[in-house]
Design goal:
The complex is a heterodimer of chains A (about 550) and B (about 100). Chain A has 22 helices and 3 strands. By secondary structure, chain A is mainly alpha-helical. A two-stranded antiparallel ribbon of chain A has the order 1-2. In chain A, helix 4 runs parallel beside helix 14, helix 11 runs parallel beside helix 13 and helix 13 runs antiparallel to helix 17. Chain B has 2 helices and 1 strand; from the N terminus they run ααβ. Classes of the chains: A mainly alpha (about 550), B mainly alpha (about 100).
């Protein structure tokens, strides 16, 4: 038992479980002190460190602290602290409690040294995070259910893959797996769902904007970056990740340009940033893996900052629809400044954090001669500046005056944004402390004249494009709308298809029934007693189709394992 | 002197000042483009050494992105209540409590 509990992550989990019992002031204290103490604990732990134990005859590794897991555990704890500070003004009991448990589970999963432990915490993040969405009110019920189904499916794939792997190798150790490992594809897809691979991605854009102004900040930090960590651990150098990641950087930005809900715009750009990290894992060189870890670190901060600023806008102005906002710089000047810092960081302006982390990944693609991937990544870099760097601050704080007048964000939100913004600039201007904790030794200088000039050309001419498009009226206006994405398949197409199949089958059975009745009547005249045919209700037909599909799924899993 | 209709508007909202900002951006872009003559870039991929590569690539990429995304709207855009669910993005302001 001690082998499990002696882990900084458990401070957060226990703190979160106890939090609802206390009054508001004590809850606030817990929300800040627990991540801080856990962070101090993590920093003084020796590295590398492995804690092994046995459970029901399985050799497990509840804790493995090395270069890679340290970076992720540390940034998760920093994010937990900043999210907690941002959340202080939220009087809900459920949301902060779920946030602490969620952060704790994410830290524990990053520190897990075997697949079974990873699975347990992997599912714990799913359960805790869905509570954060649900805490925003009953209208989130359906989206929470969709979110939970996807997350649990990822966990089941991971468990099945782990069992297949264990049956072949006799080991549960979570080290490099690769696609050729037994169960390798199953675990790959489990990670891919949470990393929001193309076509497995839409749970993210669907669910994140549904949480409360503070809850979305918590959601943005952990699940997807845990998946990036898991990919880096298990699938470094897996080449198929390079095209997957490149696609991820590119396609969400088209959606981001036309999306009206500014927090959903941020969810699309989150997806795009994950793409850079996935490419880094796919390249798999020391430079690229350093890039992935560094980019996850900086990304968690600037993405949290952007979600905080839009959360503050939602909290005060009552909406984050681009079509209804504008001119807020007058009411919320500090929030605007912090938002611009986040925007500059995600756009990778020199002296801001994104610049010193994304460069590692882009350079490693260049060194490998992956010119096409490199071109896609540079395109995506320009695109992310376009929608996160310009569109978000422009439509929220400037554009035309919407007439909304509200108060500036509360002090705790401003303080959380201020600290996060300071970290974004600090890391960008002084990258060495971050470079020093990366998994491999860093021999890289981001601030060369040529590199800075190249980035400034890219960004300024992207801004020029935005300006020209705005002034010529070509830029599409913000419109109240829903844009179809892959969730359409399971929210519209499949239900409609099942209804149609059910309808056809009902007609068939109806026909058979009528024929039966006629035959029965004919037979009855002959003096026989045949049961009259009956119609089947659509609901039970849909249930049978679902049962059939579930059976096929179970067979599929067993066949794959065999 | 600002136009009477501009009274009550912030500095940044006055069309005259917006023009100033835009011209400043044009000027900065021109300078950064010209700096390619002076600063030596060492690119691993040969084509990235072309004069002003990042400038024109960034510009073309963004114009292409926006025009393509605008076209995508025709294919993808539906009314806000398409899924019969409360669309997120609204929050009760506390002065409405």
């Amino acid at each position: 038992m001690a082998a499990w509990i002696a882990n900084p992550a458990w401070l957060l989990i226990i703190g979160g479980l106890l939090l609802p019992l206390f009054g508001y002031r004590l809850r606030c204290a817990l929300l800040l002190i627990v991540p801080a103490v856990a962070g101090a604990w993590l920093l003084q732990m020796p590295r590398p460190l492995t804690v092994e134990t046995e459970l029901l005859g399985y050799a497990l590794t509840p804790l493995r602290l090395d270069g890679l897991s340290f970076v992720f555990a540390l940034i998760f704890l920093i994010a937990a602290f900043l999210t907690g500070l941002f959340m202080l003004s939220n009087r809900s009991r459920l949301e902060p409690a779920a946030t602490l448990v969620y952060a704790g589970a994410a830290v524990a999963a990053a520190l897990a040294g075997d697949l079974l432990t990873l699975f347990l915490y992997w599912e714990a993040t799913a359960l805790a995070s869905v509570l954060i969405i649900l805490a925003n009110g009953p209208q989130t019920w359906r989206v929470s259910l969709r979110y939970l189904i996807v997350q649990v499916a990822s966990g089941l794939l991971l468990l099945t893959g782990a069992l297949v792997y264990f049956r072949s190798t006799g080991s549960l150790a979570f080290d490099h797996l690769g696609l050729d490992a037994p169960g390798g594809w199953l675990i790959f897809f489990a990670f891919g769902i949470k990393a929001a691979f193309p076509f497995l991605h839409n749970w993210l854009q669907d669910a994140y904007p549904a949480a409360s102004p503070t809850g979305t900040v918590a959601l943005s930090a952990f699940t997807t970056k845990l998946a990036i960590y898991a990919l880096a651990r298990g699938y470094a150098g897996t080449e198929i990740l390079i095209p997957i990641g490149a696609l991820m950087t590119a396609f969400p930005i088209f959606y981001a340009v036309i999306e009206n809900d500014l927090r959903r715009v941020l969810a699309y750009s989150l997806n795009n940033q994950l793409g850079f990290m996935v490419v880094g894992v796919g390249i798999g060189t020391e430079l690229a893996l350093n890039g992935t870890a560094a980019h996850a670190f900086t990304h968690i901060l600037y993405k949290a900052l952007l979600f905080m600023s839009m959360g503050a806008v939602l909290y005060r102005a009552g909406t984050v629809k681009g079509s209804e906002l504008g001119g807020l710089y007058k009411s919320m000047p500090w929030t605007m400044v912090f938002c611009v810092v986040g925007a500059a960081s995600i756009s990778a302006f020199p002296l801001f954090s994104g610049f010193i982390s994304k460069s590692l990944i882009l350079s490693s693609a260049g060194y490998q001669g992956l010119w096409f991937v490199w071109l896609v990544l540079v395109f995506a870099s320009a695109g992310v500046f376009h929608h996160s760097g310009i569109k978000i601050p422009f439509f929220a704080f400037f554009a035309h005056d919407s007439g909304i007048r509200c108060k500036e964000a509360p002090w705790n939100m401003l303080l959380a944004m201020g600290i996060t913004a300071a970290l974004c600039i600090g890391i960008g201007a002084f990258p060495d402390p971050l470079y020093d904790i990366l998994p491999y030794a860093v021999d890289y200088e981001p601030y060369t004249g040529g590199h800075v000039l190249a980035q400034m050309q890219l960004l300024l001419f992207s801004a020029l494009a935005f300006t020209v498009l705005m002034r010529t009226g070509i830029y599409p206006p913000e419109l109240r709308s829903t844009n179809l994405d892959s969730d359409w398949i399971y929210r519209r197409m499949l239900p409609a298809a099942i209804d149609r199949i059910a309808l056809v089958m009902e007609m068939v059975f109806d026909g058979l029934g009528r024929a039966g009745r006629r035959a029965g009547a004919a037979l009855a005249r002959e003096g026989s007693d045949v049961m009259p045919g009956r119609t089947w209700p659509v609901g039970s037909m849909a249930l049978w189709v679902a049962a059939l599909l579930a059976t096929l799924l179970i067979f599929g899993i067993f066949l794959d394992g065999a | 002197m600002s136009e009477p209709s501009d009274r009550g508007k912030g500095w940044i909202e006055q069309p005259k000042n917006v023009d100033r900002i835009v011209y400043a951006l044009y000027a900065i872009c021109a300078v950064v483009f010209a700096l390619d003559l002076l600063v030596e870039r060492h690119e691993y991929l040969g084509f990235a050494n072309w004069f002003g590569f990042y400038a024109w690539y960034g510009f073309v990429a963004c114009v292409g992105l926006v025009i393509a995304a605008k076209g995508l709207r025709r294919l993808l855009m539906r009314p806000e209540d398409y899924y019969d669910e409360t669309a997120p993005g609204h929050h009760k302001r506390e002065d409405e409590h």
